[in-house]
Amino acid sequence: MKRKMYATVRRYEGVLDPEEAAKKVDEIFVPRISALPGFVEYYWISLGGGSMISITIFKTLSEAIDSNEKSRSWVNDHMREILGPSIRVEAGPIVSYMGS
Prior knowledge:
With 100 residues, the protein is α+β, with helices and mostly antiparallel strands. It is 39% helix and 34% strand. β2 and β3 (51-58) form a beta hairpin. It has 3 helices and 4 strands; from the N terminus they run βαββααβ. 19% of the residues are buried. The radius of gyration is 13 Å and the shape is globular. It has a domain at 8-59.
């Protein structure tokens, strides 16, 4: 039986500088979020056209919710002027996956 995990997906529309956003995420945010309890994986994905998605996976729902609060705070403090006004956040249990 596979272990239960939880994912949070954040979609950013109208990203003004995707390269700068990726740089800040990689250098500053990833080390912070990966140090949180229950962290499993993180992805920052460029969709082109000023759209980006992040996917964060945690072991428990409470850890995923906590990461959402920390992410929201970090974005407001460090990325608001780069990411633009449209942010959509969704979270839930992972019901099927394949990994190594």
